[in-house]
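Bump. Still looking for beta-glucosidase structure tokens.
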Amino acid sequence: MRRTALLASATLLTALLPLTAAGSASGADEPAPVPVDRFEGEVPFANQPADGIFTWGGDTDDPPALRLSDRADAPEGAKVLTGTYEISGYGGFTHDFAADQPAHDWSAHKGIRFWWDGQDNGKKIAFEIKDGGANGEASELWTTSFTDDFTGWKQIEIPFTDFTYRTDYQPVGGIDHVLGLTQMWGYALTLPVGVKGQFAMDDVELYGKADQSLRASVTTDSVVYPVREGGTAQVKVSVATTGSAPIDEPVTVAYEAGGGTAASGSDYVPVKGTITFPAGTASGTSRTVQVATRKDKAAESAETVPLELTVTGAKAPAETPEVVIDAHGLPYLDSRLPVRKRVADLLSRMSLEEKAGQMTQAERAGLTSQGDIATYALGSLLSGGGSTPTPNTPEAWAKMIDSFQLRAQATRFQIPLIYGVDAVHGHNNLAGATIMPHNIGIGATRDPQLAEKTGAVTASEVRATGIPWDFAPCLCVTRDERWGRSYESFGEDPALVESMETVIQGLQGRADGRDLDRGDKVLATAKHFVGDGGTGYGSSTTGSYTIDQGVTKVTRQQLEAVHLAPYQTAVDRGIGTVMPSYSSLDVLGDGQGPVKMHARADMINGVLKGRMGFDGFVISDWNAIDQLPGDYASHVGTAVNAGVDMMMVPYTYKDFSTTLIDEVKAGRVSGKRIDDAVARILTQKFKLGLFEHPYADTGGADEIGSAAHRAVARQAAAESQVLLKNANGVLPLKKSQKVYVAGSNADDLGNQTGGWTITWQGASGDHTQGTTVLQAMRRAGGDVTYSKDASAPLNGYDVGVVVVGETPYAEGVGDVGNGHSLQLSAADQAAVDKVCGAMKCAVLIVSGRPQLIGDRLGGIDALVASWLPGTEGDGVADVLYGKRPFTGQLPVTWPKSESQLRINVGDASYDPQFPYGWGLTTLTRVPEGNAVTLKALALAAAVAERAGSAQAGRDIVTKARLLVQQKVGSALTASVAAPFADADHLLLTGKYAAAVAKLTEAYRAAG
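Sorry for the wait, here they are.
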């Protein structure tokens, strides 16, 4: 799902222009303007931490070209700032004040103004200021805009009261959401998109005098005050000032309850009065208004009592506080009733508008106002990748989500939100969480019990922050490693993917859903239905993507055997939600051609809900309906009629809700379809216990990132390591050896964790808590010297370890051909060549997919596929130093060259560098034997198969596999690789005798 990159591409603004000298007052009441930027050359074109002007944009073509130009008509001085632009994504410029100097204080002024040379293009230009934080790139962003609908010079005046907090993008996610004006770091402009233009600007300055209404504000401690019928709400009213100074003048707050759905006198006691905060009152002083409710015997939905506040002398609250008398006495609120009866009762009471709201999911940062949760009766919110609170802590997550749930209490039936997040390898949006290996590494472990444990740890950490829903696991079967999200797959074999679906029980608990209301379980999502891993290279039409979101062209038999099979397993395991794929499905012979999955009613309604019996709900992917043909109304109608129950419409939630209502009223979507969708959604909310406990249960928060949780991740990292080559027993290392460590991924936690970590695409560097491979080797007691680029002297070492591979990426952006390849970087190749040319060496490839290493394989003594091991580099050190044996097996085929792609187990032509299922071991004694031994193992496997003894069967096949690998050594040929790979598939499908027979074939082919 596209996440933060789309947040950022809405506009990535980040700075302001520098304050120069403070002017002297022109009078006692009105200060003289204070220059911010004169564009006479006093501020250079420069970046942080220096004071300077700089440009930015979505790609290399988007940043504008700037210069200081002499203009005879300059409004001030001799020069003006001029620029040209032609922006396709987003672009603009910033002036950041020097980060090594104190921030500027703008609080004495009314606003900011500047001269603009109008082009009369009718375009809006965003203007942004930066408040608080450590510097201009770590501050809150406050924004407004002006329209270029004039010609010639015009002075644009913007009062500070016009600026609003940006909800679509914040570099730090927010500090205090208050425009304090006492710590300002500059400004930024975002230029129009889609036009070729030019501009000129001059004389940015502060103007006017701030009055108390700008410095002082009245707030309430909440916006919504739920109380049980007969209870009394306590509304705390406070006055505060910028800089926490006492108020200069009196502030009065007149209050009166009334105007809501509750009846004055019968439902609540009328209340009216005035609070006065005298001049000199300390900032933060509070008074309490009590609103008492009355009890009757009737069962009722929730009723509201707004408390209207009229403020004099300060800024009034942005929203009117509202007392809510809780719904009570209605059957759907009775937890003793069966879920189906509760659903039926609630559904019978809901309006079409409320039902449409339940089918709508918005991005939390895309809310125009939090009040929209109640206004549109929203059913769900999500955090996309990188959409986090500030600070990014468990406490802040829980507080944020509780604030959203509180808003839902202001609706008629107080239906709680279901909040979702992409926790695809641990609670990966949360700094300090336990980050597991990505699915490709979990598939390499061949350990279903461990997969379940990783799911359980993830569920525990996610639920402890107030989130009951995880958009995982990905059940994609990756068939082409040029796909940028292939690491989200457990592997290329559907049988392997099915075996790893124990992760669903780790996330959700028992298949009947009885564990979902526990504080350590979450609703899981099987994605992306169906065929996302089978798209053809070059078939994508999404932006610059080459394969992601493309077309999967298969026969009906291939569809069933490869891509659909894992979903039947997921349904049998009780999966709660399913997410369709962005991709299109083209089933050969069905006459439909390529059809977007969000429009395939035959697959969603017919196969998933019908034949498979899926009784959860279907959630769309991020803005996925926008890719359907036709106008927006047809997007909505097509997807809903195809069986999509809830739409992830991050920023267009208003349009979706109103359009869906219109489509129902027009008869293009039936009321029955709506009721089915809403019933499915409500069922999961009841199972999760959200009606009884809508707020975060943080009892498990102390376990987030705990030693016990990290131990599971460490085990997963160790078991995921696949030893592809080990000439002369280079591995495991001995602590007595002097080890030379090099390579770009030896000491980079961000590269080690990959995409979907803290942000959508991930990032290199330290952005969370964990241990790099280098740190882990040192902690293991190794005698280690590190030189990233292998530039340090190479003599005097017993062995080298070169850790190379990929930098982070996620869906689409990571596609090969979209700025990525399967080749090691030039720096990594040089490090391998230097170290391996000077000493015995082991090369670890930290990546989300195989890297092409064939031309260097002969010079490498030991080769390890490290995948993306997560935060626990100690697991990698455990196998390097022999604390644990290497036991991992390839979850995908390792190709010799890119020209071999696609290449997968079972292909008619199969001659890889290393076959699917390959994986050497250490510490474990490889069984001795020959063809006779294999014959005996085949007989034993047949007995185990007949007896239904899975563990015995697996042990027997493993012995045969190790024996064959020892015989083969480095003499891997096509005649060996094909039956070897087939054997692992047969093992996973429980055909132990046939697996040994295939291994015997490989043994004989080895000569």
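Confidence is low (pLDDT under 50) at residues 1-27.

Edit: fixed formatting.
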